[in-house]
User: Which sequence fits this backbone?
């Protein structure tokens, strides 16, 4: 509000001076073609007019112009300070980002190394486990084979015994006559009868 009150007289003063200058310029235009250049008649009013105009401008515009330049200087200084702070923040953020990139890079390398180590350990573990499984399977197969061989041997022994019995029975039947049969039958009956 106070700035508006200070500017209003400035506009009134400027409009008055401009009106006087226009009126003076118009009166010069209709002079009838005579050109007389005298210091007091021609230059003095112009110099006085300029001096009055300059004095009025200096008187009324001094403070607003000074305030304008002071505020403009302060705004420029503030802008420069803000720019400097923004630059410092940007540089700090850049340094932080570079540090984070290095940290991430180091962490990535660490994770890769750990994964390789873990992979090698897992690989060795799988190899050892597969060797153990192969050994277990081989032992189981050997045990199964041994068992099957034993069964086959037992089966062959039984079959051989049966064949031996059949062969012996066949030979006994060939060699035995009716007299031998009756004698064996009597001996058997005597033995069975004697057990009672």
Assistant:
């Amino acid at each position: 509000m106070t700035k508006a009150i200070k500017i209003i007289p400035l506009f009134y003063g400027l409009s008055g001076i401009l009106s006087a200058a226009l009126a003076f310029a118009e009166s010069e235009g209709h002079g009838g073609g005579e050109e007389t250049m005298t210091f007091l008649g021609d230059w003095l009013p112009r110099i006085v007019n300029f001096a009055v105009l300059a004095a009025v401008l200096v008187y009324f515009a001094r403070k607003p112009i000074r305030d304008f330049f002071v505020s403009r200087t302060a705004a420029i200084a503030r802008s420069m300070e803000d720019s400097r702070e923004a630059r410092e923040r940007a540089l700090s953020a850049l340094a932080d980002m570079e540090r984070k990139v290095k940290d991430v890079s180091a962490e990535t390398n660490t994770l890769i190394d750990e994964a390789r180590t873990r992979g090698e350990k897992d690989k060795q573990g799988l190899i050892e486990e597969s060797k153990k499984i192969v050994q277990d399977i081989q032992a189981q197969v050997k045990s199964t084979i041994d068992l099957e061989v034993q069964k086959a041997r037992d089966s062959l022994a039984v079959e051989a015994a049966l064949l031996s019995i059949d062969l012996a029975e066949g030979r006994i039947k060939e060699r035995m006559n009716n007299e031998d049969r009756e004698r064996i039958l009597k001996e058997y009956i005597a033995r069975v009868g004697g057990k009672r």
